[in-house]
Amino acid sequence: MAFKNIFKIKTLSTAIGASLLCAATTVMAQAPAAATAPAADDAANTMWMGVSYYVLLFLLLAVIVGIVGKILRVYDLTSQIQGKKPLNWNNIMGVICMLFLLAGLYGAYWEFTIQGTMSLPEAASVHGVSLDRMFMVTFFITVPVFFITQICLFGFAFVYRGSDKRKAYFYPHNNTIEKIWTVIPAIVLTVLVITGFFTWKTITNTNDVKGEPKAIDIDITGHQFQFEIRYPGKDGKLGTKNYTLTTAANKLGVDFKDKNSMDDLVADTIFLPVNKPVRLNIIAQDVIHSVFMPHFRAQINAVPGLPTYVKFTPTITTEQMRAKVEDPKFEYLLYCNKICGGGHYNMQRVVRVVTQAQYDAWLVQQKPYLNDALKKELKMLVTPADTTGGQKKLALNN
Ligand SMILES: [Cu+2]
Q: Are residue 98 and residue 234 in the same domain, yes or no?
């Protein structure tokens, strides 16, 4: 359908009718829901009404633009019939281009000043600093290019708009210009991509590096709607898991045939010693979740059946960051950022970066994964009847 047909009277009335129907349905659907819905649903309702509001506003704006166009056309034709000078569409289009440029530049300024203040505080991990550096380099290269090209594009459309006083100069080709705008972006992009590749390589290499301290392994298991946290015990090694061993007491399916599992610990909060490498061993039990720690500039999916890893070294303690952001209640957080179901919004754990001494003191207070209920289930508890035989009964994993 040609664009001009959109404004045919039949199409226009159909669009208005559909919009009114949509508005009425939305309002009617929301009214009883809002009256009965618990407070937690209010945000979702408001959001939904917000979307309908903006869609309708856009349609209204489109209709207004269409009507103004029609009025101008009618005015133009009437003027021509009356023998008056017709409208100068070149001027109108030139002014529209200039207004669009000014509105766009103000929008970009607003983005930088208002949205910019909402950006994250400084990176709190070693690799986060190099990621931020890459971001800033890309930003300082692309932003001037953005402003120059937009100003030239719309500025030229305005300054050199069609006029009876001058004739357009036919300038079909210039090899030098072609070379400049091909070679310079190619070089810049190659440098950015190669730098990015090496940074990415160091981030995704989760193995321990020779000569550097061994990473602390922490087990993170995502399920609807929480992350379970398991720390290695004194041996510093996490025991293996096997999903077929999952029971009510053995929620993570830890395999106790592996001796390393015996002293593993469970925690509610993730404590990390500052300046020590940490490796998160990640998996999901139901749907895809994601382990997202924006302050450490780290994110990786938690996938059922596919272990993923993320290794990083925190560099700023929670206390130091509280002072930096001037918020005594600041906490680093680990969020799920995959929309994984109804309780997704609340799927998070506090991450606290502390000194080595604070970490050691905290770790000894954590409860063992192998608790009494699990020992009972695995028939590892020694009952008086067992002791008479002088042998401990140990039936692992049934
Ligand atoms: Cu999730």
A: no
Distance CA 128, CA 126 (A): 5
Q: For residue 225, is the peptide bond before it cis, meaning its omega torsion is within 30 degrees of 0?
A: yes
In the chain, the number of structural domains is: 3
Q: Distance from the CA of 54 to the center of ligand 1, in angstroms?
A: 29
Global confidence as pTM: 0.68
Can you give the residue range of the structural domain that contains 24? 1-87
- Same domain for 289 and 198: no
Strands 308-312 and 226-231: unpaired
Does the pLDDT at position 4 exceed 50?
Answer: yes
Tell me the pLDDT tens digit for each residue of 212-265. Answer: 788 899 999 999 889 999 998 888 888 888 888 888 778 888 887 878 888 888
CA 225 to chain centre: 18
End position of a domain, from candidates 46, 70, 87: 87
- d(CA 345, ligand 1 centre) in Å: 8
Neighbours of ion ligand 1 (CB under 5 A): 289, 336, 340, 347
| 290 CA distance to ligand 1 middle (Å) | 6
Query: What's the gap in Å between 144 CA and the centre of ligand 1?
Result: 38
Q: Summarize pLDDT for 27-80 with one digit per residue, the tens.
A: 555 544 444 444 545 555 555 566 778 889 999 999 999 999 899 888 888 888
Report CA(222)–ligand 1 centroid distance (Å): 7
User: Which pair of tokens denotes residue 262?
Assistant: 């015996």
Residue 302, beta-bridge partner list: 289
The alpha carbon of 202 and the centre of ligand 1 are apart by a number of angstroms equal to: 27
